[in-house]
Model the fold of this input.
Amino acid sequence: MKLTKEQIEELYAFTRKHYVVHYDLQTELVDHLSNGIEEQWQQNPNLSFDDALGVEFKKFGVFGFMDVVDSKKVQMNKKYIGLILHFCKEYFKFPKILLIIGCIFTFNFSLNFFSNSSKLDIINGVLLFAAALLLISSFTNKKKLKEGKRWLLKDIIYQFGNSIAFFYLPIYMYNWYTPSNGVLKNIYLQYTLSTYTVTYLFICFVMIYIIPKKVNKLLRETYPEYSLV
Done:
């Protein structure tokens, strides 16, 4: 015996009732529950759906899905963060890395036309602008998530994006508290700050525009239901 579509939907509702909020985690549990129920029916075809579900749920112990969900979250977090880093690395390989290097040299060269204090203001302004765009993008996309199904992968991306947005703070604070008088006369320091600023810009670009497209494609391939959301 196989579960019907209506029974599968009941399993999804059952996981939601037990505080599993992410659809990809719900799917993992529904697959586990449905396999267990179908195995029970092979041994006892007269067993009702509700009774079979009760038997399967008891196997999760006193805390229900809590321990399994926590374990799955850790496992999927590692997997998803690995994917995010993989997408970032792809964008920082040849030949795209040449574009980044070119932008670093162009940005560094452009700074030479400004006074030392203006250079710091420009660097701070660029960092703040990129961080603000990333935070706004994360906030907007997270707001959209509340209107539909929640996906652990997307939640991780927006949390990751929020964390990266604050990576500008060390350089910003350094620039803010460092006397502008002569601070960028050191060519190596100027190149370092230019490299950091341009790299940060590209990371923000990847997080805002590249990764969401890759993730949507990944979710469509992994979960056919995603195309219906």
